[in-house]
Amino acid sequence: MKKQFIFYIDMDGVLNLFESDKNARVNMWTPGYFRTIPVRPGISNLLVRINAIAYVVILSKVINRIGVTQEKSFWTNDNISPDAYSDIIYVPYDRSKADYLYPGYPCMLVDDKESNLIECKEKGCHGLFLSDIKTTDKFPVAENLDDIWNFFKNLIDQYDSIHD
User: Fold this and answer.
1) What's the pTM?
2) Residue 142 CA: distances (Å) to CA of 90, 91, 114
3) What are the strands of the beta sheet with 87-92, ordered from one edge?
4) What is the 3-state secondary structure (H, E, C) of the chain?
5) How far apart are CA 136 and CA 156, in angstroms?
6) How far is the C-alpha of 54 from the C-alpha of 1, rounded, in Å?
7) Other C-beta atoms within 10 Å of 42: how many?
8) Which residues have C-beta within 8 Å of that of residue 89, sequence separation ≥ 6?
9) Rounded mean pLDDT of 17-43?
10) Distance between CA atoms of residues 38 and 33, nearest Å
11) pLDDT value at residue 2
12) Which band of pLDDT confidence, cut at 50, 70 and 90, is reported for residue 164?
């Protein structure tokens, strides 16, 4: 039985290597672009492990361009195991990810944008920062997939000790 815990994870820059394209902010307006971004090596296998214990929800912002949601769905189907997540939520780019959190569930968010982590923290969600090019001093930083697993496992162990 899964834990009543939600593991939210960002797509662009976390599941994939969006930041590896130095022109990503321009190229993302080109139809089909989001299908071409390389996957972060090993992330699908890690999420399969986590989704066996808790609920993995991909939480991804979408720019205002026709086809982006479909491109991201195709990308997910091509790169992430269906056993690696329980749900996908696409958030309009001008909205806060915090507005799309399932209410009443303990949770964490792995994201590469500090402002998303701050907004989610205000709703009680634990934040973990993962970026190949940016830094933060406001949140714990994952430098590799083991750091993500360890942060998640520590939260789950704390949650279990309180609810047992």
Assistant:
1) 0.95
2) 23, 23, 13
3) 87-92, 55-62, 6-9, 107-111, 126-129
4) CCCCCEEEECHHHHHECHHHCCCHHHHCCCCCHHHCCCECCCHHHHHHHHHCCCEEEEEEEECCCCCHHHHHHHHHHHHCCHHHCCEEEEEECCCCHHHHCCCCCCEEEEECCHHHHHHHHCCCCEEEECCCCCCCCCCCECCCHHHHHHHHHHHHHHHHHHHC
5) 24
6) 9
7) 11
8) 57, 58, 59, 60, 100
9) 96
10) 11
11) 79
12) low
The rounded distance, in Å, linking the Cα atoms of 59 and 123 is: 15
- 104 band by pLDDT with thresholds 50, 70 and 90: confident
Q: Which long-range contacts (CB under 8 A, 24 or more apart) does 87-91 make?
A: 87/55, 87/57, 87/58, 88/57, 88/58, 88/60, 89/57, 89/58, 89/59, 89/60, 90/60, 90/61, 90/62, 91/59, 91/60, 91/61, 91/62
pLDDT > 90: what percent of the chain? 88
